[in-house]
Amino acid sequence: MTENNFWLKKIEISVSEAEKRTGRNAMNMQETYTAYLIETRSVDHTDGQSVLTDSLWRRYSEFELLRNYLLVYYPHVVVPPLPEKRAEFVWHKLSADNMDPDFVERRRIGLENFLLRVASHPILCRDKIFYLFLTQEGNWKETVNETGFQLKADSRLKALNATFRVKNPDKRFTELKHYSDELQSVISHLLRVRARVADRLYGVYKVHGNYGRVFSEWSAIEKEMGDGLQSAGHHMDVYASSIDDILEDEEHYADQLKEYLFYAEALRAVCRKHELMQYDLEMAAQDLASKKQQCEELATGTVRTFSLKGMTTKLFGQETPEQREARIKVLEEQINEGEQQLKSKNLEGREFVKNAWADIERFKEQKNHDLKEALISYAVMQISMCKKGIQVWTNAKECFSKM
Amino acid sequence: MEGERRAPRARSCGLPAGGAPAPSPGVDAPVPGRSGPPALPRAEVLDLDEDEDDLEVFSKDASLMDMNSFSPMMPTSPLSMINQVKFEDEPDLKDLFITVDEPESHVTTIETFITYRIITKTSRGEFDSSEFEVRRRYQDFLWLKGKLEEAHPTLIIPPLPEKFIVKGMVERFNDDFIETRRKALHKFLNRIADHPTLTFNEDFKVFLTAQAWELSSHKKQGPGLLSRMGQTVRAVAMSMRGVKSRPEEFMEMNNFIEIFSQKINLIDKISQRIYKEEREYSDEMKEYGPIHVLWSASEEDLVDTLKGVASCIDKCCKATEKRMSGLSEALLPVVHEYVLYSEMLMGVMKRRDQIQAELDSKVEALTYKKADTDLLTEEIGKLEDKVECANNALKADWERWKHNMQNDIKSAFTDMAEENIHYYEQCLATWESFLASQTDLHMEETSEDKPESH
After folding, report:
1. Nearest CA in chain B to A227
2. β-sheet bridge partners, residue B132
């Protein structure tokens, strides 16, 4: 729930349904996709009653568009990630198919989670495009594109260049970058091994199901042992089928970890922006310094540095004092401009660092809280699994002992 | 298939009337052995067919061919059988204790083999002493089994462990193999000792007490090779003719054996597969725990929680190993022994059928031949006695065997269930204590007056 200037009251957001659709894509070809129903309710704070105010359908690509827009316009914010586009870290029985109902269901939850995170972010929740995403079904895409945000986006190449060449980034961002790399690496590893463990666990449980079948067949020829065998076999079936729910729950745990895996990328995006700005600043400062030097050289007539002008002067003869005066004037203007720019870049840079760091602190607290909760919920899942196991095997033991 | 499985069974005092996939009487059903499991409709239930190759096992049990129809001592009176069954049920009256241990490797120029030490303690009068220690190799056990089968063709002789296992063996004598075999040989001798008839067998006594050279010379006695071969050829020829007039109770018995054999083989496969899956699960868990510790290195505020989870996973991993070893000690050997028993049983049925076939052929001969009727009648008389003895022996031993089988299976599976319960209880305790520590910590964090005690 959140309050901001677009919402007169507190709101609740939910992604309540998913539906398969077919339509024509940009190239006029038939395609199948899933659409998600987003419902927004406004809550009366006096009696807690909620009223449905908006309801529209969106597909995954529109969520992506929203997020890309937010990334461009709020580079100092750790923008919440979307659930994965394709199923990864899949253990063998789980489908990697995007159309698989279980995957769609988990994605629905992930998308809801994304919207809730955006809506509860103190800065992002006030964004107009976000508001329109929840309220304006038709034309929203055009509206977003009209902001021209794609043009404002920093090119990847520029960012990469800046990362390599920046000389004095804020140390905290460098550390943060390392942290996010480590986070990504360790969570990936964990998810991979978890998937393998899930696979093996599935195997152990399911093979026991074979006992059920064989015991039942065997019980047909046994007199005294028959009943015990048959009922024990039933419990083996129960045991074997219990793993499906257990692993489904674990999938939700894995999704919680995945969210932070993707958050690592969001952290890196903020670091990249800082490096870009810092690099830009350094380049501007460098440029200014070199212009000042040029100016000085022209004024005093000494040539300390190699320049094309110097060469051509030597070759073709010195320029006239008027020409020199003109050049100095131009340079002085440029220097002035440069100094202004440098000042404002400096200010921007410091603003950015301040705001970004505030959001990062907020993020850190959120992360610690969420991950701890996730790990505890994992423990709770294990406890539930153990309790089920004890019950089934106690029942089975009773049947065996009656044989 | 689902629906079929849970259909109520016809319960009567005999075998169920319907529902059991019994072959029609009178038809010699094909040897089931390792018939594959029926097609599994649900992909979830893992198909075992692929594993058949992995679990290929050859039992070179030559004794099946050795059909010596001599049958010396065999108690024919039901009363004496009952007494001896009681005798076996009361362990205080047991007067023959056998252990098999200390496998030792022997290397000669020709071969390498293993001997096992066999210690026998007894209070029986017919033994010259009260304690014996001898060394025997697998060949000697094979010999003993052969002699027992010769002497008692329709008794259920305990099975020997296989001669060798084809797949999965890197070298012939690795430690696990030897240990498994030792345990099985120990079981073999003790089962003979517990058997009301076999325990008094002369060859058995010689096996337990004779020194090496004495045993060799004793082995050389007995019917010559040629006569044994003649018997074998005749026996094979007769078995080809099929059984036309098998009595009803033996039809039932045969039916039971066929189905039992199928099922116990499947259970053997399933149990081995479970062991394998648990092993692989445990291996993955070994890697899973440490990742959390690694993670804790970069998360100041989550160190306790992450390390706690890591420690729980490690403990559960150890509990899995314990469960596995329980399985391999309690369940797997028992199930496997009964797989071998089921093969034994089919051999016993065949031998009984042959004895009857001998009688049947003589009776047939009598019907057609005019001459030698007196001789034939005399032979038939003897054979009729022989058939009656054989049938009675088998019937009594059958009941005893079934009773034992039930107990063994029941206790093996009860143990397995117990292992699993214990495993889950251990894991539960681990995770619950972790959870408690986390909620305690949380409470300590939120209430500032309480000092941190962790």
Report:
1. B9
2. B120
Q: Which residues of B touch A223 (CB under 8 A)?
A: 13, 15
pLDDT in tens, A133-182: 999 888 898 999 888 888 888 888 888 899 899 999 999 999 999 999 99
Question: Cβ of B302 and A217 within 8 Å?
Answer: no
- Find residues 366-425 of chain B whose CB sits inside 8 Å of chain A: 406, 409-410, 413-414, 417-418, 420-421, 423-425
pLDDT at site B222? 62
* HEC secondary structure over chain B: CHHHHCCCCCCCCCCCCCCCCCCCCCCCCCCCCCCCCCCCCCCCCCCCHHHCCCCCCECCCHHHHCCCCCCCCCCCCHHHHHHHHHHHHCHHHCCEEEEEEEEEEEECCCCEEEEEEEEEEECCCCCCCCEEEEEEEHHHHHHHHHHHHHHCCCCCCCCCCCCECCCCCCCCCCHHHHHHHHHHHHHHHHHHHHCCCHHHCHHHHHHHHCCHHHHHHHHHCCCCHHHHHHHHHHHHHHHHCCCCCCCHHHHHHHHHHHHHHHHHHHHHHHHHHHHHHHHHHHHHHHHHHHHHHHHHCCCHHHHHHHHHHHHHHHHHHHHHHHHHHHHHHHHHHHHHHHHHHHHHHHHHHHHHHHHHHHHHHHHHHHHHCCCCHHHHHHHHHHHHHHHHHHHHHHHHHHHHHHHHHHHHHHHHHHHHHHHHHHHHHHHHHHHHHHHHHHHHHHHHHHCCCCCCCC
Q: Is B29 on the interface with A (CB under 8 A)?
A: no
List strands edge to edge, sheet with A30-43: A10-24, A30-43, A50-59
Q: Please tell me if residue A94 touches chain B, with a CB cutoff of 8 Å.
A: no
Q: Test B44 with A240 for CB contact under 8 angstroms.
A: yes
Look at A379 and B298 and tell me if their CB atoms are within 8 Å.
no
Are B180 and B162 in contact by the 8 Å Cβ rule? The answer is: no
Which of B20, B10, B2 lies closest to B262 in space, CA to CA?
Answer: B20
Reported as a pLDDT band with limits 50, 70 and 90, residue A252 is very high
Q: What is the mean pLDDT of residues B292-303?
A: 94
Q: Which of residues 330-349 of B touch A (CB under 8 A)?
A: none
CA–CA gap between residue A214 and residue B335 (Å, rounded): 13
The sheet that has B112-122: what strands, in order across it?
B96-107, B112-122, B131-137
Q: What is the pLDDT of residue A306?
A: 64
| Closest Cα in chain A, distance from residue B175 (Å) | 27
> Are A389 and B301 inside 8 Å of each other by CB?
no
B contact residues 188-247, partner A, Cβ 8 Å cutoff: none
Q: Using the beta-carbon criterion (under 8 Å), do B263 and A217 form an inter-chain contact?
A: yes
For the residues B45-52, what does the mean pLDDT come to? Answer: 46
The residues that bridge with B267 in the sheet, in sequence order, are none
- Look at residues B444, B443, B442, B450 and name the one whose alpha carbon lies nearest to residue A369: B442
A142 interfacial to chain B (CB closer than 8 Å): no
